[in-house]
Design brief:
Elements (H helix, E strand, L loop, with lengths): L7 H22 L6 E2 L2 E5 L2 E4 L2 E5 L2 E2 L7 E2 L5 E2 L1 H13 L5 E7 L5 E7 L2 E2 H7 L4 E2 L4 H10 L11 H8 L2 H4 L10
Parallel strand pairs: 4-9
Antiparallel strand pairs: 1-8, 2-3, 3-4, 5-11, 6-7, 8-9, 9-10
């Protein structure tokens, strides 16, 4: 028994605690990714390019570029293009500062970005032109209660819209007018 300290339930629990402590230590010692900044080329309401880097705003999901929504009277409006135009206006020639937090399955940098100290994701959700998928629940509640943007009428969640329209809808950067080679 002396040479086998990880035997039985106690040993299993001890081994799990040691592994968890090691994982926590590695996480704490891994340096955060360096912030990125630059001139933005807006793709849609929640993604853009900074130079060669593709950025996806963390914590929000905006309508896809070709997505259509309905207003209170049932009239269609181009909510995807409106969301893109809002992000263009928020950036307005300034250089967003983005703190990366990993990558998505398409290789885009997931980041929290700001312009002049104002969080772009929070502003998109406050305007009602993106839904919160993470940390912007208060902003979403405010937009919903004030019936701003998407909340003025009816809409499919961007995820549901993408599911119905296929993967191309999520990866199309809005350059569909260019010839394909």
């Amino acid at each position: 028994m002396q040479g086998r300290p990880f035997r039985g339930r106690f040993g299993a629990v001890l081994a799990i605690l040691i592994l968890a402590a090691c994982a926590l230590l590695v996480d704490r010692l891994t340096p955060a990714e360096a912030p990125v900044s630059g001139r933005a080329r807006i793709s849609d309401g929640d993604s853009f390019h900074l130079g060669d880097e593709r950025i996806r705003l963390l914590g929000i999901d905006a309508p896809e570029l070709d997505q259509i929504c309905a207003d209170a009277g049932g009239q269609s409006w181009t909510c995807g293009r409106t969301a893109r135009d809002k992000l263009v206006a928020l950036v307005a020639g300034k250089a967003p500062l983005c703190q990366p937090d990993g990558h998505d399955r398409f290789g885009r940098i997931l980041a929290t970005c700001s312009v002049n100290g104002r969080d772009l994701g929070a502003q998109m959700v406050e305007a009602g032109l993106a839904i919160s998928s993470d940390d912007y629940g208060g902003e979403e509640t405010d937009a919903r209660n004030a019936k701003r943007g998407l909340w003025v009428g009816t809409f499919d969640s961007p995820r549901a819209w993408r599911d119905r329209h296929g993967r191309e809808a999520e990866t199309n950067p809005g350059w569909d007018w260019l010839p394909r080679f």
